[in-house]
Design a protein that fits this description.
84 residues, 2 helices, hypothetical protein PF0899 fold, five-stranded mixed sheet
């Protein structure tokens, strides 16, 4: 299982975009988010002028809500395409 990583000082669309660019996460990979962080991203999108596209993705990287209760709040797990 991959490790959990911290993104900036909080998870937001901007911090996820910056992280994806800095770490060169591949299109098609996935980020698994704590349910609370996932809901924060959904709320941020709802309050923006952008529409919500389901499934959620940023730069082709899929955002997935953790359903196993293993990803801590404020962290995410990166899953490479071939490991899903």
């Amino acid at each position: 299982m991959s490790e959990f990583v911290v993104v900036a000082h909080g998870i937001s669309i901007a911090s996820l975009r910056d992280y994806l660019l800095a770490k060169k996460i591949d299109k098609g990979d996935s980020l698994i988010l704590n349910p609370a962080d996932y809901e924060t991203i959904l709320e941020e999108i709802r309050n923006s002028d952008e529409g919500i596209d389901i499934p959620l993705n940023i730069f082709g990287v899929l955002l997935i809500k953790d359903t196993t209760d293993t990803v801590p709040a404020g962290k995410l797990q990166i899953v490479e395409t071939d490991k899903l």
